[in-house]
Specification:
By secondary structure, the protein is of the alpha+beta class. Helix content is 30%, strand content 28%. The protein contains 6 helices and 7 strands. Helix 1 crosses helix 2. The radius of gyration is 16 Å and the shape is globular.
Length: 200
């Protein structure tokens, strides 16, 4: 497993990460093209994982897409673009994002700053700080770090839901042959009112 480089983003870096994800989504949805990060901020050359999460701002704010990886050999700028494109595609939340939706989306980016392979997830997991990735054989899944706080989940529920997403038993997180990785990240998102980017 490749280790994430330790990355610490400034607020301006985080705001640019979200802006880059938005540009990548729009380029893909409108033109079917891959956005190039262009001249990148220094932090974006680090090789680490990143996730992009896209929610509708209409109604209950349903998830429209979420993609990424907690470890990566790509430079951060490229990892953000790739995650944004994947989150926009039909492979993510079941239906591709359409051009008419672009004004009604809120995009957030999680940049991975640290990973921990744990044998005691209940002890090591900090809700609101850690995302969780589960690996068991060829089954793999992960969930975004802000979800348990947004949904008011306990540690046990969070872990069981990652297992269910992977298609394994909801108590598989207790098994010795299940690999659990906690990933810490900085999360930035567009404010729902269309204003500036906020750090979570």
């Amino acid at each position: 497993m490749s280790e994430a480089q330790t990355v610490q983003l400034s607020y301006d870096d985080g705001a640019r990460a979200v802006e880059l994800a938005r540009e990548a989504v729009e380029s893909y949805v409108l033109h079917g093209q891959r956005e190039h990060p262009g001249s990148m901020r220094d932090a974006f050359y680090a090789r680490t994982g990143a996730f992009v999460r896209i929610q509708s701002t209409r109604g209950r704010g349903r998830l429209r897409g979420c993609a990424g990886a907690y470890h990566g050999s790509d430079q951060l700028g490229h990892a953000i673009v790739d995650a944004a494109i994947q989150a926009s595609s039909a492979d993510s939340a079941g239906s591709e994002i359409g051009s008419k939706e672009l004004d009604d989306l809120s995009i957030s980016v999680c940049v991975v700053s640290n990973t921990l392979l744990t044998n005691d997830p209940l002890e090591d997991l900090e809700l609101g700080t850690h995302g969780v990735a589960i690996d068991q054989g060829d089954k793999h899944a992960w969930l975004y770090p802000t979800l348990p706080v947004e949904q008011n989940w306990s540690k046990e529920k969070y872990l069981s839901l990652v297992c269910k997403k992977a298609g394994i038993s909801p108590v598989a997180w207790q098994d010795d042959d299940t690999m659990i990785t906690l990933f810490e990240g900085q999360v930035y998102r567009e404010r729902p009112d269309g204003g500036s980017v906020e750090s979570l």
